[in-house]
Amino acid sequence: MNDQPQNAAGFAAQIFYFIERRRLADARRVLHEALALYPQDPDLLFHSAQVDWLSDLNQQAESTLRQLLVQSPEHAPARGLLASLLAERKEFADAELLLIGLLREYPENAELYGRYSRLMLITLHLDKAEQLAREGLRYDPEDHECLLAIALCQTARAGGRPNEGLAKLLQAHPESLSAVHALVVALVDAGRMDEAHRLSQDALRTDPANEHLVSLVRELRIQNHWSMKPLWPLQKWGWGAAAVMWIGGIVVLRGLAANAPAIAGPATWVWLGYCIYSWVWPSLIRRLM
Amino acid sequence: MDNEELLKPTLSGYRQPPALYNSTGFFLSAFIGGPVGAAIYGSANAWRLGRLSKDLPLFVGIAAFAFLVILELDRQGVLGQLMAILGVRNGNFGIFLRGLGLACAGAIYFVHRGYFRAATVSGVTPRPGWVPGIGALLAGVAANIAFVRWILQHH
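YS: structure for the whole thing
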């Protein structure tokens, strides 16, 4: 990959090679050279935007994409990347219109259905997200984006119950980080913090530079810390457990005060201590760890 | 839903992106503000989800039903018996209003369950709930005080 390319397509292939391997400094170096020779080449401009996007320089990426789309309005990868950028900026309606435009041109592209499905999921439209993912799977039953989307939709519906969508994703793409991510989400949802923590740690070993995984492992390490174990009912059943804890606590303590006043005092202190612990400790441990 | 229906824009109709307010605010509004607190916070969520006109009558109905339950229990003398068992001073309706507030929050959560679940699995950060929370809390506490005064006057 060190030979000097002879044309813009050769440069684009070399840059893509570096982007795929996340060698962004090398990609940027070749881009600098290539854009000096072919400043208007659509694919080079697209890769330039891609490198900026992967380097979190979203504003620069967007301005390059808009420049590219003025000269080549049909450039599908650029429109797809612009949709991702707009979604990251929470301009969901514009991102949706771009994805719909692409789907009308490529109606059998399963990956686009998967991406649209994920957009619907983050804008909380669970039913449409699931239908889009199912539609995409009709065109490609093993499409990664659609399988991930359907796994997340089914996790949302199933809670801790067996999840067929997740099983299919893990069978089709056991190596993918998205599959691991979906599995971790399902395990956390089912209150299985220990397994979720171990799985995300394994994933982090294979991709130590992944910032999302680093924060996920940190959060799960906190959730799985021994000092959080007394709070497991609240972790597992969330606000339902909190409601039972408060109303149940008040009722039981009132009953004890009326019928067994000798143990009502200590029980009240234990209950109050637990309530304060459940409020204070989770935020305190996040600062300490 | 056919393919044409599936490719119809969904998000263009929203003035702002659909989102949910923080769940802690929901819990506290229901716990302290009772049924009215839960209904107001739930309505704020419905507004952010672009379905307020659909949900508002239902949430008003849920809150009204909760108050009717207390009235009916009081009329039949069950409330007095419960107060005696729990050792609660006669006329102290606080625990019942809190319990029914949380029950109302549960019912409203059930209506919005799909949205809450989608937010959980997609890792969407909820919006801070200070503004609807404080509004729900104040209105809920005022409604609870008014209701208790009214019920004591007609006892």
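YS: worth flagging: The first helix of chain A runs from residue 8 to 20.
IM: good catch. Also Residues 233 and 241 of chain A are 6 Å apart (CA to CA).
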